[in-house]
Design a protein that fits this description.
By secondary structure, the chain is of the alpha+beta class. The chain has three domains: about 50 residues, no CATH class; about 270 residues, no CATH class; about 80 residues. Helices cover about 30% and strands about 30% of the residues. The longest helix has about 35 residues. The protein binds zinc ion (ZN) (2 copies). The site of one zinc ion has 8 residues, from loops. One zinc ion binds next to loops.
Length: about 475
């Protein structure tokens, strides 16, 4: 077995031995556990009790079991895919290169489980086109049949992570009682399990794109078998679960905060989480799974964009460019509308001013009309110019905002409902404490003075 040095955080020499295999164990900072590089065992540093298992796979040399499979390696981007001897690759769906080298498997290839393809190539393209239609300003290349015909069925390597999670969340809550408000300090600990949270172990495919086509239906999960390979290509993982520990913990922490928010929203009329004070996950377990994905990278104006369709459920997504001209036209039209509103609004100043003057001086006959007109335009000019302080940054922001729309927005990962496992129950320790009573009027006042000055607020109301 070969291990990269960065997989293991070595704090000096370790005298502790792995209870499972007898090799030395070292402290891993990301996990907060002692880690055995030989068998993947994780142990609690204080008690040496087992805290799960996270291990690299497919590190052994290919054996006779692998003789029925071949590997295609892309000469230009290095993507390596595994398939059977009757399936051949003519181009690389990651970079488009036709130069692929096929060879005998260099390393073992033995995932634990897999979900078979259920969606055909035609269905995948149809689903993708349906989705692409809902996105505005997608360039023609991304709906071209010739381009889409290159979409390829890949089994993408995923780490399905199980963990026991415990998180401490704090915040503030309010209960409305007529004109009065009860204010609470929220302090809760949640204990729950998550099962099979998927993380793709493929550097060449964006995590957010893979999250966008989640979830998979785990009921159809099968033990891995080579017979699922013909006609498809299996990607090799290049990120182990250990490499991804930061990403895994961030997602689990977000889940912890999300679940407290949702549960507490029912009890409180207003709830604000300040944050996860402590998140702690333990008893990690991993399953090395292959998930079916129809995938294609498309090159456009010097950048690569990806499209993906869930090969089991048919859910389509992509990170696509959108036509910049359309975006800029949109920004221009909406800015013109804002500027029109602005000009009309500032005309209120001279209108009121002149009305006041007329009231004070009185209209002394037609001869003086020019005086009022002059006053009107002078006041208007002053109002317009001084208002520029507000309107210029506002319009500029509009144009810089438009840069965010250069790529189509895609769905976020599913929320915790998809992955929480309630078979072992769900515990929430509630230590919320009553702080003080306030009235709605106090609260409104606080809110009013807490933020921006009134002028900015009024402007924000008008120019939304
Ligand atoms: Zn061990
Ligand atoms: Zn390639």
């Amino acid at each position: 077995m070969t291990w990269k040095n960065e997989d293991i955080n070595i704090n000096g020499t370790s005298s502790a031995k792995c209870p499972n295999c007898g090799a030395s164990v070292f402290y891993n900072e990301k996990l907060g556990k002692l880690f055995c590089a030989m068998c993947g065992g994780l142990y609690d540093p204080e008690s040496m009790k087992s805290a799960g298992r996270i291990e690299n796979r497919d590190t052994a040399d290919a054996g006779s079991e692998e003789d029925n499979k071949q590997e295609f390696v892309c000469d230009s981007c290095g993507a390596a895919v595994v398939t059977d001897y009757n399936t051949s690759a003519t181009f690389c769906a990651f970079c488009g290169s036709p130069t692929l080298i096929n060879r005998r498997l260099s390393r073992a290839f033995r995932p634990d489980v897999l979900i078979p393809f259920k969606i055909s190539k035609e269905e995948a393209i149809a689903n993708y086109l349906k989705w692409a239609k809902t996105q505005k300003g997608v360039p023609k290349k991304f709906t071209s049949e010739a381009v889409l015909s290159k979409i390829t069925g890949y089994y993408i390597p995923f780490w399905l992570i199980d963990a026991d999670c415990k998180s401490e969340v704090s915040g503030t809550g309010q209960k409305f009682k007529g004109e009065n408000i009860e204010n609470y300090e929220i302090d809760r600990t949640l204990v729950y399990n998550v099962r099979r949270v998927p993380f793709d172990g493929c550097k060449k495919i964006s995590n957010t794109l893979m999250e966008a086509i989640e979830p998979y239906d785990y009921k159809e999960i099968k033990d891995y078998n080579d017979m699922y390979l013909p006609g498809f290509f299996a990607q090799r993982y290049d990120l182990s679960a250990l490499d991804m520990m930061d990403i895994i913990r961030i997602r689990l922490d977000n889940y912890a905060e999300g679940i407290v928010k949702r549960l507490s929203a029912k009890e409180y009329d207003y709830f604000k989480a300040v944050g996860v004070r402590g998140a702690y996950s333990d008893n990690y377990d991993q399953l090395y799974a292959l998930m079916p994905v129809w995938f294609l990278n498309i090159e456009y104006e010097g950048s690569m964009y990806s499209i993906a369709v869930n090969g089991q459920t048919g859910k389509a997504s992509g990170s696509l460019p959108i036509n910049k001209r359309r975006v800029h036209t949109h920004a221009l039209v909406s800015s013109l509308w804002e500027i029109t509103k602005y000009i009309l609004l500032t005309a209120l100043v001279p209108a009121l001013g002149v009305a006041l003057l007329m009231f004070l001086i009185g209209n002394k006959g037609g001869d003086f009309d020019w005086f009022y007109w002059m006053m009107f335009f002078v006041l208007w000019a002053v109002a317009l110019l001084s208002g520029l302080i507000f309107i210029v940054p506002h319009v500029r922001k509009k144009f810089s905002d438009s840069s965010f729309y250069e790529s189509v927005t895609i769905d976020k990962a599913p929320n915790i409902d998809e992955y929480i496992d309630l078979t072992n129950g769900f515990k929430m320790d509630i230590r919320d404490t009553f702080m003080y009573m306030s009235t709605k009027a106090d609260d409104d006042k606080n809110k009013e003075f807490s933020k921006e000055p009134l002028s900015v607020k009024v402007l924000n109301k008008i120019f939304k």
